[in-house]
Amino acid sequence: MRHRYIVGAVLAAVAAVGSPSAARAQEGGFQVPLNSSPVLPIPTENPGQPGFYTGFEYVMLTQTKAIGDQTIAVRGFTDATGVLTGTPGTFIGSGTDALNTRRMGRREFMPGFRIELGYKFDSGTRVYFNYMQFYDAHYRAGATQAAQGFNVRPDLADSFLSSPVFNFNPAFGGPGLDTNADGGNNGSFNTFGIWNAADIMDIRFTQRYQQAEVGARVPMFATEYSSIYGLSGARFAWIFERFRWRTVDVAQDGTQDPRNTANYSNTLSQRMYGLFVGCGHEVYLGSMFSASLDLTGALYMNVHKIRAKYKLGDESVQAKFGREGFDLVPSATGEFNFWFYPTEGIQLKLGYQGITFFNTRQMREPVGFNVGNIDPNVGSRAFRLLHGFNVGIGFFF
């Protein structure tokens, strides 16, 4: 009798282990407690149930303002022909900074979005594609004849703006009679060049970021209330930056002409292609809430392009410069999220993320003053950071 009870207990245990309900409880991102009733919606879809899912997120990040400290214009002007001083090339004025790249406002946040499409297999493995894009961040600064406190010296020399642009086409010569100090007709083109004794200058710096990745999330270890998973795939990142500088040289009689306006632009585009690998950990907090931390590392091939250009206001004359290069850029990304599972098939998230890059390029000196060979100073930057908040919703089918 005792022997039959023992055999029956063993057979019942084997049947329980091999039953579909028990097997399903071990699949998916989390184990589901066998004695739970109702089953907690962690993850959103039923454990082991394959299907498609999609997610939409609003993202707000700020990016390192990667631009160097360069003086663009100073107060005063150059006596080009020597009419005023007797020595051509003599500078008249205080030479104090009037426009500098470090004075373009505080760092801005960039609003954007991220969308994701994926498929979950019955083993719990997910494959996905996501795309993230941000709207441009803009920084501006300007200078005019109205210096701070109207401190322009008795000779009014500091009411003018000048930049050391040289080796330019005569079409950029500016108005013949520019200042009252030109000495009448004998002083025509004494302040030769649109950038010599100019009246208005403004600069703008624009930053943009985009990212796309194809990856997989593979369960590695799970308990009833936590899950560890691996992350891997391919990622594309694009950092786009553009610097613009506009100079207006008003004639002595007060007239403005597009031919006396010069526009400069410097565009730095960095397209990075690479692979990433990492891991994540999600923990159930109770009451349909969980928290997760994802960490990944990536190595990119950075294809950077530099395009600089001087252009006359009427676009009749321009000078161009271009250069390309390649760099290896390591990167590390971290993302911390709180999750809420209100009902089966829906999940909400609120989190914070940081994206770092090492050895990207930046405009150390965005302006190349030699129009004959513009070649602005673009060097490597050891560290670049994007970070901010995200909120989103996901649907499983």
Task: Give the biggest beta sheet.
Answer: 10 strands, antiparallel, barrel
Encode the helix/strand succession as letters. HHEEEEEEEEEEEEEEEEEE
CATH topology: Lipocalin
Computed structural class: mainly beta
Terminal CA distance: 52 Å
Determine and state the CATH class. Mainly Beta
Please report the total strand number as a whole number.
18
The name of the CATH architecture is Beta Barrel
| Percent in helix | under 10%
Strand order, sheet with most strands: 1-6-7-10-11-12-13-14-15-18
Q: How many distinct domains?
A: 1
Overall spatial form? elongated
Low-confidence stretches at least 5 residues in length (pLDDT < 50)?
1-48
Mean pLDDT: 85
Total helices: the number is 2
Query: What's the alpha carbon Rg, rounded to whole Å?
Result: 32 Å
Strand content: over 45%
Name some characteristics of this structure.
elongated; 55% strand; 397 residues; mainly beta; 18 strands; 2 helices; three-stranded antiparallel sheet; Lipocalin
Q: Can you walk through the features of this model?
A:
The chain is mainly beta and 397 residues long. It has helices at 2-18, 20-24, and strands at 51-63, 71-75, 77-79, 90-92, 97-100, 109-120, 126-134, 137-144, 161-162, 200-222, 226-248, 261-286, 289-312, 318-343, 346-357, 360-365, 377-381, 384-396. The chain has a ten-stranded antiparallel barrel. A three-stranded antiparallel beta sheet has the order 5-2-9, with no helix packed on it. The model is unreliable at 1-48 (pLDDT under 50).
